[in-house]
Each structure stands twice: as C-alpha cells, then as structure tokens.
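In the previous chapter we treated chains in isolation. Here, by contrast, the input contains two separate entities that must be folded as one system, with a combined length of 893 residues.
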Amino acid sequence: MKNEIRFSLNGKEETLPGDPRRRLIDVLREDFGLTSIKEGCGEGECGACSILVDGRVIDSCILPAGAVEDRTVETLESIRETERGEKIVQALTRGGGVQCGFCIPGMAVSIESLLRTNPRPDEHAIREGISGNLCRCTGYQQIVEGVAAIEHVEGDNS
Amino acid sequence: MSHPVEQHPVTKTVERVDAREKARGETRYLADIPFPGRLFARVVRARIVRGEVVARNTPSLPEGYILVTADDIPAGGKNCVRMIEDDWPVFSEGTVRYYGEPLALLVGPDRATLAHLTEQCERAVEFRQQEAALTIEDALLCRGGAIHGTDNVYCDYQVVKGDPDGAMAGAARTIEGEYRTGFQEHVYIEPQSLVGTREEGRVTIYISTQCPFYVRKAVATALGLPQEEVVIIQTPTGGGFGGKEHYPDVLATTVAVALTRIDGPIELILDRMEDLEVTSKRHPSRVRYKAGLDEAGRISAFDVDIAFDGGAYESSSRVVLQRGMFSSNSVYEFPHVRVRGRAVATNSAPSDAFRGFGAPQGLFAAEMFLSRLAREIGVDDLDLRKDYLLQQGSTTMTGGRIHEEVKLPEMLEHVLRVSDYRRKREAYAAAARDNGANGTDGAASAKPLGGIGLALFKHGSAFTGSGEQEIIKARVRIRKRADGRPELLVSNVEIGQGVLTTFCKIVAQVLEIPYTDVVYDDHNTSHVPDSGPTCASRSVAVVGYLLQEAAKKLKGRLHEPGEFEVEQVYKHPEHLRWDAGTLSGDAYPSYSWGVNCIEVAVDPLTWEVDVRGVWTAYELGRAIDEEIVRGQIIGGAIQALGYAGLEKMENPEGRFLQRTMADYCIPTSLDYPGVDYALFDNPYPWGPFGAKGGGEVVFDGIGPAYAAAVQQAIGREVTRLPVTPEYISELVHEK
C-alpha cells in the first residue's frame, strides 16, 4: 500500500493528490487553485512560477510534486497576507514596478526570500535577488527602487 | 532624471489601476480562468523547412480526440488568416513554407495524451523536401524556386524627393555603406494563449491579444461568418510588444475551425519552445546607402536600398517596411533622396510587428552611416548631424512637413551635459591613440576599452500616412452609467503599457473627477466600438485624443438621470496630406523625438560589453503619467539593449537554433545599469493634453547608440546588430 505524501502548504498540512511525478506547478495551480503561480517557460528559466520550499526560491515548473514531501511550501497567496508581503505588494504597486504583471508574483516571492535573509538590501543585492525572475516590460529599475524603499519589517525571518 | 519644464497636472504620477491586483497575483490571465469541461488543443506541425506533403498517414485516434484540418473549413469560409493579404493559410493544404507550419489541430481531453498523439501524427507525415531560401540574398536569387509570386518580392516601393539621379550624377564624391540586423523574438512572459468556445451559439474566443478586432476579422473570414457573429474577449495580456498584434489571429483561426466540429471550450496555449520556434519575429534587414557629396563636401544626394526578410507569408511586412523606409533618413534633411524598399519571402517563420515596427532597423543603419560619412568627410560626428537636422518647416523625405517645433538641439545639449559626452569621447579617443602602437588586438593589455556613442531619432505616432482615416476610422464611446460613473468603450487593451490608467486619467482630467471613478473594464468586441488595434504608438496619441474630445461632450452632464452615451469618431487633422500611391506627404500625423547616449567598456580578452551608463531624452508631446512613461523609457531601453548586444536568433538550415529561453537570452536584472531620462514638454495640438506616442520611440535609438559606443571602444566600424562578443572578435581580428 502506498504511503500518503504529506507537506505543508501556506501554513496548512496537506496530502499530495494524484501522481507524485506530476509537476509541482500543475498540482498547486490545478488541485489547489493557487493561480498566482504563472507558467512562463516550463523549463526553469523565467521564474514566473517561483514559490518557496523550506524558505528557498524554487521554480515549481521543474520540480516533481513528490519532492515536497515533509517540506514547507509557501506561495504568494500566503505571503501577500503578511505585513512584509503587503509592503512588497505596495513597493511594486507604487513605484511603477508593475506593467503586464505576468512575472510579478514570482518576482514578489523572490523579494520575500531576499528580505528574510537581508532585510536592508542594497541595489546590487536586490538585483541579484531578482536575477532569476525575467521581466520583459520594466527593465527592472522601478522594481529595484521600490524594494530599496521598503522599510525593514521586524519579526519572523525564518 | 530632470524636468526641464514645469509639469502639467495630468503628468503627475498616480497608482496604476491594475497594479495592486497584479502584484497580489490575483489578476486572472487566460490560463488562470476556469472553463468547466475544457478540452486542450495542440497544433500538428510540419517538421521540415520547405516542401510538399506527399502522404499524411494519420494514425487512428482514441475516442474523444479529433484532428482538425483545412478540410473542416466550412463552405463560405476561407483557408486564410486575414491580415493585409490572404496568403497565410490557417492550415497547410500540402505546401510547407517554414519549419513548424500548421498542418492540423488535435483536440482532446488529456494534455499528455495530446502531446504524444501530436508527435505521432507529425512523424507519420511524408514530405517531398525542397531547397529553402533563408536569407535576403537567397530570396532575391529565388533559391529553390520562388516562394511567393515569381520573384519572392512581397512589395517593392520607391520614395523620391528632388532629383536624386541628377544630384548623384553630379556628385564630386560618393560614399557607400551596408548595414544588417537580425531576428528578435518578443519573449512576452505570458505565452500565446486562448480559449475558444460557443456562448449563446456564437463563436467566442477568450484571448491574450493586443487587437481583439483583428482576431474577430480573421476568425469571421476563416469561418465565413458576419463579423458581428464572432465574439472576442481580451484577457489580461502578459506582454505583447507586437508579438500579440497579428499572431493571435493565426492561433485563434485554428481553434475557430475546430469549433465547427465540437463546441469546446478548447484551450490552446503554446509552450515556450513552440512559441519561440514558430511565432513571428522582428524582420531581419539589409540596408545599403550611397551618399553623393558636392564640391563643397555637402551631402547632395542620398540613395537608400532597403530589404526586409518578411519570412514565409506577408503578414504586415509591407507596412513594417514602409516605416523602415521612412526612418532611413533618421532626423536629417537632405535635398535629393531616393529610398527603395523591398520585403522579400524566405522560408523562415513569417516576420511581423515588434516594438518599433521597422524603425529600429532603418534608424540603426542611418545613424551608423552618418558616422561613416563624418569619418570619411573628416568632420566631427555631432557637427555633421547638426548640419542636417530637421527643424520646424523642414521637408521630410516623403515631401511632408515637420509641423512641430523640433527640440532636438536642446535635448542633445542636455544629454551631452548629463553624460559628460564630449570629455569622455575625447578621453577614450586619446586612450585609443595611446594604445595605437599595440592596435586593438587586445593581447597587449587587459584594460577594458572604453567608448561612448550617441543616436538621434524620431518615431511617427499612429498608422502610416492616411491609415488612421482610411483603414481604421477609430470610434470611441463613453457611457454615462446610471450610477453616474463614466465608462470607456474602446477596443484598445492593456498589455502592460498602462493604457487602463492613462485613458482613465485623460477622461477624469476633462470631467474633473477622480480617475478611479472612471470605469474601463469591458474588452468584449460585441460591447465596444472598434477604436483600432493596440499598436503603432497610437493608443494615447489617437484614441486618447478621441476620448478627451468625447469627455468634453460629457462635461457637466454626469448628474443627468439615466444612462446615455457620447461618441467621437476620428477626423484626420486638415493640415496633413498623404498620397498612398506615391508614398508622398505627411507619413505620420506627429513625431516623438529622442536622443540616447550609451557608454561601454569592452573586455579586450572576452569582448564582452559592459554598459556603464545610459542617458536618454525624449519629447513625447506631454507625458500623461510620468511614472508610466518612465516605465516605457526604461523597459524600452533594456529590451533594446537585448536587441543591440545579446539577443541572437539564427536559422542557417531553416530551424531556429535557439530553442529555449536558456539558448535565447533576454536581459536579466544584473545585465544593465539604470537609465537616466529627461522629458521635454512640447504639447501637440491633436493629442490628449498634448500627448504623442511613447511606446516605441523608447526602443528605437538604443541600437545605434550602443553600436556607436562599441565602435569607438574597439576602433572598428560596426555594421551589424546584435553586436555580440563573437562579432566584435571577428571585427577586431579582421585585417
């Protein structure tokens, strides 16, 4: 008899439905309705499908779903409800950092990951932090400026 | 950044109406919208470059799967994707003109099964292959026989100003040059996506597109239906850049034909590899110049021969070519000019619209040739440009007038100052002279080679010539809703450029209400009038103006009871003249102007180019929202830097070698520095609050400025884009 694959998703214990060889992006979008995750390339290049697995940024399009067994998965759906998440949303919204918006959820996830380890990143650190997220509209500068202006959020950096 | 002139209130930045929802990941793009009972589709493609289908040998399909081909096009319909000409078929009926051309559409319930079946179907097809034509030279030689007509020429235009033959014959000296540019792929991050279905019996297409009415026309033509019976609904569109101007028609028509057999909903989303491989790219170009100089060394005759690689079907190549031709004199006025332009057929995926629409190719060639002329004549690069600069009242190469005040001289001075161009230019030249003994072969020193370059340019807003008046005839309406809020009814759509916000701001400014009170969320072709496509730097300049005029009719009436509408129809400004037969007169209603400067350091071992600074100045009439315009400026510059130095797509044997986003690299956040900008206010009387177009001019000048900078750094003439390290190495080692 097959064991269930359990994982934590946005703070809730979940059981992985279906075949564990399916791509994580498909499981999260189709079975859990987490459509902040976008598919831009399906090959781990563009970063539009970025999520956090145990706090690290992962392209969910190239990860088999079974790989998250006993791990913690976070998507923008939970990040945006936190204080820091709201600051990231505002930083993107107010500074001209959003154009077509398709890369933006993945970008926000990478920014969250960056701020957890480096609450006051300089321009280079921000550029490095989002370098796995391709944006074809903005040229990145307004995103970088927006993040640089985020005030440090005290608290949980786990 | 700087503001040489005090801002108009409309220029003041507001929060974009769509930004928060997008930043929270709540915006539903096509793939995020649930369609109960949705089926999936995959295009069955020809896996050869050129030839004829001999046998299809279609395997038997499991239950629930259907194969849709040209045979399914209903009586009264037509196997074509209607754009300008009807040459591009929905499905090949046997002839294959490019790698990946659609043969059929497979529809079924399971994606994995579909992928497997598609491969089976593709493998089963037998072809008779033919020699392919893959370059402009191949096309003109009709390699493998003509693809189009008898000579592979889609169109052959000529523009004549003055007496170029006489002036050239009388020239004391002539100087020539040849310039080339390559393909560029749009890489909108959201791939081409649509769902076709039937709603209330009508064919209904939900689609990521720039031009809902283009899709409607193409679908109606393929199915032989009146246009009103087809409904197109634009979904939030994850980038376009021209790549979703016509190409969505190509996909929507295949799904529409499938809807004659099953009701759907049918989802067709290209995966990235497929998208890179088969969708339209920027036209590769070859531009040849010959200038005739008189005894005094002045440029008397200017002869230009332009060829654009239009690919396997015509699509909008003739219009792209025209813009390339009209850009080939850049911002300069010469007395006697001939420009010949041809768009030719090759066995590459059809080339089509891409931000700039032919202008980047023409301007690159023009600016590089001007540099060559300065060098050959022995005058300063900038002095030569200043001598021929267009000004108010100048006659353009098409015999039109420059109606507006040209602010280029002050824009140029601004860029020279903030970039410290003159000092740096001289210092790099001195450094190159000091290195002179060693040459620039790089072996002698590991010190980076510095260079700085400039480009001047303009971009005409709106459709070419009388296109706005004769082809589009834009119509806008504003509905005063029962709740008192104005609702915009237009067909222009948000693709990231900010139009949802700018249109609301324009109308709100007239009505003196908050911009958030304006409603603009209906993108359904059966609800809105056709105000034209979202392209050609026309949305703000043309449609925004119509909205401003319509809003004036609504002013003071928002408190009236009930619901009513006001309408505004496009009227060509009376001072503009155009003869489409001779391509003479005012090629565009207005121009936006720009000056770009780029500083580089070239690594003498790897020939990698490090961009050290980007300075820009633009005159776009008046910015409707400064932060949105700034987003266009920076985004356009970075996308154009990719075109200038990074993005290479080649198909030496017909299939593109760059197949993934790892092969075809677009700029990341680490590749380029920030972009400095300045806006020069110069209100345009027929633009909303004085605004002209800004979406494309911001792309146009980066290529030549980058090439000019590299040219100075390596001491070799650059004549091609992209300027890759491989190309630089070739130039440097050329004896």
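Chain B touches chain A through 57 residues (CB under 8 Å). The mean pLDDT of chain B is 96. Compare these points with the single-chain example from earlier in the chapter.
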